[in-house]
Specification:
Length: about 120
């Protein structure tokens, strides 16, 4: 899977604390800030600096986007998008069923964490 990993300001503070850095130092080392978004810098040839030994090395403090997957609004709201994501994610559609209210609550966290992203999506509909 390719893509960007976006962070909320709260994600930045939590991830920085987890690796023992001040938020500003974490941002300088690991992030790219644009006018409206903050995202993780990608190391050459890899998707994420924190993906180590087939695991997330900052799992307890990983960004909202990572924690909420696959209950992203754009996946919960589209059967087609859900099926496309499930085609590359072997963990989707496996295991215990998740209560829809629980999935929607996680999805709502995405809209709070990344308002610019979801305001643009709703404006374009
Ligand atoms: S879950 Fe961890 S390793 Fe995976 S993209 Fe997110 S921060 Fe990186």
């Amino acid at each position: 899977m390719e893509g960007e990993v976006y962070l909320s300001e709260n994600d930045l503070v939590k991830a920085a604390a987890y690796v023992g850095l001040e938020p500003a130092a974490f941002e300088r080392k690991h992030c790219i800030r644009t006018a409206s978004q903050l995202r993780l810098r990608k190391p050459p040839g890899r998707q994420c600096y924190f993906h180590k030994d087939n695991c997330c090395s900052i799992h307890p403090a990983k960004p909202t986007q990572c924690r909420a997957f696959p209950y992203w609004p754009e996946l919960l709201e589209s059967e087609t998008a859900w099926a496309e994501a499930a085609a590359y994610c072997p963990g989707m559609n496996q295991g215990e069923l998740v209560n829809i209210q629980e999935a929607q609550a996680i999805s709502a966290e995405m809209k709070v964490a990344y308002p610019e992203m979801y305001e643009k999506v709703s404006e374009s509909l």
